[in-house]
Every structure is written in structure tokens, then in C-alpha cells.
Backbone:
């Protein structure tokens, strides 16, 4: 909430490496449609594998583990569960299924946050309920001594902080004072600093991260487990969270270490997805179809730059070639000269009619 509050109140100066991540992710999002047109069997295998890894890794980060031989049964089976750990892993799977199927219609609200938390905690008495006791982040020294690494928002203030967090998040995505991906990472940081639940804040934050990625059109989490990548980089995850939470209560913290960590994680996920999905050759003409589909989506006149921006995975030269071809057959009309010329759709229709 303190991070979103800062971005809403004043324009942020974006570090150079953050800009590079945003550019790379924009290009990856543009290529996403090409890779999701691959073999349905291959993509189904990637989805199932990601589901298993996400449910297991997100819980394992919090010290919740199940017998390796039981993972398939817990994730995909309907048999009775043996213990509390298995219940939490299957609950996380249920939450993932909900996001995968209904993510577009799930508003980021107190109701959604409560529901996701409850799904991952089953029949525990405070599942879906805000904490009723202080729950600070405790760190232990090697000799066993403990100290408060981060003091989370107090019990009485938590409901109001979450309400403001939701409002500021909505404002950031509506008015766009910063790039949506920065707002996404900032809201994730703020949620973890508020720490609204007695237990399960990390898992709930990762589900919210995935949900918000889908709503922004970054769907790599369906095929590559974001949770598994966080687990593989757990030390860096906690290190950047520690760095970015210092002086958070005063609004004098540095959010960029954690923001850049999440952006780099998404970049890694896309690179892995392209390697795995790209093992199958791109469908013939997929890039041309993407450009033509984008042209059909323009209601008004458009420019070459508009197409380049909307199809970051397609080269400018190929887009020019497609424009010339469509102009020659009478489907497009060029309204000027030079790279800034406007174009008008005269007859590109959907292949379905």
C-alpha cells in the first residue's frame, strides 16, 4: 500500500534495468500467441506439469511437503487425504484451477482474497479471516536467537490497509501512472508487508500475482510454474523482499529490488516457455495471421508504428511486407506517405467469415 501510494502521488523514475525488463516482457507477450498455437498435446503436458510444480513448490516454500509418491494422487486424484499438508497442497491446486478457469472474472477484492486464502487452508478455524494476533516476520540467528526482521501492519489496522490497498491498486491500473507490470509487482510487495493473515500470506500473494498476470495478458504461468521459479530462487526472493520492506511503514523504502526480482522471474518463465513450446515449429503463416488479426481489431485508421507496438514479436520488415501485399490486393488503403502514414482497412475480414 505504501509503494502504490507513492506511485499514485508522484511519477516514478524507473531504473534502466527495469525498463529493459519491461521491453523484454512486452516482446515476450507479443510472441505468446504464436507459441500458444503449438501442439495442443504439448501445451496440455506443460499445463499439467506447471500445475503440479506450482502446488508443490508454493507450499514447500512455507515448509509444507507431501510424500513424493503421493503427489500425483494429491494433485489429480479424489482419494481421501492423509494429513494437513496434503490438504493444503490440494487446496492450492483448487485455487489454481479457479484462477485458470475464471481468472478474467475474478475481481481483486476482499472477497477474492479471502476465498483464495480459504481454499489453501481448508478447515482451519481462521481460513479466509484476517489475523487476530500480531504476526511479525521473525528471523533466527545461527545460535538460535530471534529478532523481528519486519513488523507487519497491526491487527486493528489490517482491514483498513487492505481496503486502501485495493483502491490504490485499482487506481494504478485505471489511471496508469506507472507501467501495469510495475504496479503488479508493487502491489505484491505491499500485500506481503501488510501480512493480513496469521499464516499463508506468501501462498495467497503468489496466487494473487498469478491472477493479476493473467488479467494483464501475461499467461506464461499456465505453462511454466512461477512458484517453482520462486522456490529455485528462494534466497534472492527473501533477500529482495527484506531490502524493499525496510522503512516501508514510513514510505521511505526502496521497492525496486523486489520489483526487479519479480520482473526478472517473469522473463525467465517466458524464456523457458519459448524453449519448451518452441520445440515444435511455428505454424506456417502464424505471424502473418497475427498481424492480419491485429489489423482487423483496429476500428479506426492506424499506422505502421501502431502495428509494430501491437505485434512486438513480428519484425518491422515483415509488417511492411504484409501491408504492401494487402494494399496490392485492395484490402488496405494507404492515406499518406512515409513511415508515419495512416492506413485504413478496406476488406480484411475474419477467416471465419
Residues:
Amino acid at each position: 500500500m505504501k509503494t502504490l501510494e507513492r506511485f499514485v502521488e508522484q511519477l516514478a523514475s524507473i531504473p534502466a534495468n527495469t525498463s529493459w525488463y519491461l521491453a523484454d516482457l512486452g516482446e515476450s507477450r507479443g510472441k505468446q500467441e504464436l507459441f500458444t498455437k503449438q501442439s495442443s498435446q504439448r501445451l496440455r503436458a506443460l499445463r499439467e506439469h506447471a500445475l503440479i510444480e506450482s502446488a508443490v513448490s508454493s507450499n514447500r516454500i512455507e515448509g509444507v511437503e507431501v510424500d513424493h509418491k503421493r503427489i500425483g494422487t494429491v494433485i489429480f486424484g479424489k482419494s481421501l487425504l492423509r494429513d494437513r499438508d496434503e490438504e493444503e497442497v490440494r487446496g492450492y491446486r483448487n485455487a489454481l484451477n479457479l484462477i485458470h478457469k475464471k481468472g478474467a472474472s475474478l475481481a481483486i477484492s476482499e472477497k477474492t482474497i479471502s476465498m483464495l486464502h480459504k481454499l489453501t487452508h481448508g478447515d482451519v478455524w481462521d481460513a479466509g479471516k484476517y489475523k487476530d494476533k500480531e504476526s511479525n516476520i521473525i528471523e533466527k540467528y545461527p545460535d538460535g536467537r530471534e529478532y523481528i526482521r519486519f513488523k507487519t501492519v497491526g491487527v486493528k489496522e489490517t482491514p483498513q490497509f487492505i481496503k486502501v490497498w485495493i483502491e490504490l491498486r485499482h487506481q494504478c491500473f485505471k489511471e496508469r501512472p506507472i507501467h501495469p507490470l510495475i504496479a503488479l509487482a508493487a502491489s505484491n510487495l505491499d500485500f506481503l508487508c501488510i501480512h493480513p493473515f496469521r499464516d499463508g500470506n506468501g501462498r495467497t500473494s503468489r496466487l494473487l500475482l498469478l491472477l493479476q498476470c493473467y488479467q494483464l495478458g501475461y499467461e506464461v504461468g499456465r505453462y511454466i510454474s512461477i512458484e517453482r521459479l520462486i522456490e529455485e530462487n528462494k534466497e534472492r526472493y527473501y533477500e529482495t523482499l527484506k531490502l524493499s520492506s525496510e522503512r516501508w511503514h514510513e514510505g521511505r523504502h526502496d521497492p525496486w529490488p523486489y520489483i526487479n526480482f519479480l520482473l526478472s522471474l517473469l522473463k525467465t518463465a517466458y524464456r523457458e516457455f519459448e524453449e519448451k513450446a518452441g520445440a515444435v515449429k511455428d505454424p506456417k503463416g502464424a505471424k502473418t495471421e497475427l498481424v492480419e488479426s491485429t489489423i482487423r481489431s483496429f476500428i479506426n485508421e492506424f499506422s505502421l508504428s501502431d502495428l509494430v507496438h501491437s505485434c512486438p514479436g513480428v519484425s518491422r520488415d515483415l509488417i511492411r511486407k504484409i501491408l504492401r501485399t494487402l494494399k496490392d490486393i485492395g484490402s488496405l488503403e494507404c492515406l499518406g506517405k512515409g513511415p508515419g502514414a495512416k492506413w485504413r482497412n478496406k476488406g480484411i475480414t475474419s477467416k471465419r467469415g
